[in-house]
Amino acid sequence: MSGGAGLSAEEIRRYSRHLIMPEVGMEGQLKLKQAKVLLVGTGGLGSPMALYLAAAGVGTLGLVDFDVVDESNLQRQVIHGTKDLGKKKIDSAVETLEDLNPHIRLVRHEAPLTSANALEIVGQYDIVADGTDNFPTRYLVNDACVLLGKPNVYGSIFRFEGQASVFATEDGPCYRCVYPEPPPPGLVPSCAEGGVLGILPGVIGLIQATEVVKLILGQGETLQGRLMLYDALAMKFRELKLRRDPACPPGEPCTRIKGLIDYQEFCGVPKQAAAVEEVTALEVKARLDRGERFQFIDVREVHEHQICRIEGARLMPLGELPGRLGELDAEGEVVVHCKSGIRSAKAAALLREHGFRRVVNLKGGILAWSDEVDPKVPKY
Amino acid sequence: MPKILIPTPLRQYAGGAKEVEVAGATVGEALAELMTGHESLRKHLYSDEGRLRSFVNVYLNDEDIRFLDREATAVGEGDTLSIVPSIAGGRGA
Known about the structure:
The structure holds 2 protein chains of 2 kinds.
Chain A lengths: L8 H6 L1 H4 L5 H10 L1 E5 L5 H11 L3 E5 L24 H12 L4 E5 L8 H5 L4 E4 L4 H14 L3 E7 L2 E7 L7 H4 L12 H4 L5 H18 L8 E6 L4 E6 L21 H4 L10 E3 L1 H9 L5 E4 L3 H6 L6 E2 L18 E4 L4 H12 L5 E4 L2 H8 L8
Parallel strand pairs in A: 1-2, 1-4, 2-3, 4-5, 9-13, 10-11, 10-12, 12-13
Antiparallel strand pairs in A: 5-6, 6-7, 7-8
Helix pairs in contact in A: 4-5, 4-10
Chain B lengths: L2 E3 L2 H4 L7 E3 L5 H9 L3 H7 L10 E5 L2 E2 L15 E6 L8
Parallel strand pairs in B: 1-5
Antiparallel strand pairs in B: 1-2, 3-4, 3-5
């Protein structure tokens, strides 16, 4: 038998360890083959999900990504390799998955998921697995899933800790039942700032993949109504109860989500970067060479300072800055830098709030310094 | 005395502690005790209007306090309070 709804002889050999399990069997394997799963992001969480779901024989995998593979991704984004540096993540992921399992269909969505395209894209799938890295997209994914009645398999990570759950099932809670509103920008650090243990997204991503497979098979108990918390350092799993918002009776449409909205605005992301003056690394270098006097502050963390530093910059980690303002002269000029320019923009805004008049942000941070001024400064 | 588990993103505002035992007969009192001496933690847990922030959930053992008596929920010996903020990481920018 080949094609149609059945499995080819090749597929039967490939999936034999599934086929001999009563919980999967031929019926389950065909369910997997007919399933359409959308993976939002092919990064830390998306990599393990995509690899294992493809290997398990999920028939249609949609991939959403528009990023390119960077060296700093390879510590955890195992679907990409060194040969893929500079390639589009979606191309690199498709290449790996095609090699892993030629019997599945891969669909590229090479654009950011937005309020304009989310319903159309999500509508083509049965289940969505969220591997995004930012609040606006998380709320967008959730809301699109709620509106279309598609389960949202959730996972999120920070440093050594991860969370996973299954949202937006017919009678379970959604992400907004748990977190009605996002934190204002700046109050919660991202992975790019806070770091993440490379193995962690592997663990959380595979919990998500497991839940996807269980939803497809209709087997076992999913994480619906439960938030799984994982602490890698303590090697502990804990579980908390999640409840559907009492304002949303099961079977009724969600009272909060009427349609897709402007998620950048909802999450308080400024439409334009706060108007802090920027200066390029080359300009800072030229000014230092000319012997100009200004306060040059590195707002990164101590452990980052140990990796590399810019000569002449003084370390004052962002978290310590509010308590150390007295060490700075508010009348004099301050140039701030961090790794990429995001934390230093926050530092600049903080300094201005405290009456510092001349604050300038080094555009692109120490990464730009390495690119433009001194390649001996390693990039991390 | 109840125990409060502090998540990684907030430890830097709580002197690096992972868990602390605090006095207090209610969730609100226990959190107030936790914030004593850690003023920077307050703005991460409470809004300027003094309300627990909506992206920070507090659980008494495994139950969300929003479905109990919120901050008036009684706590006692052997109870564990977990602070669980929303985190967004995953793709890794």
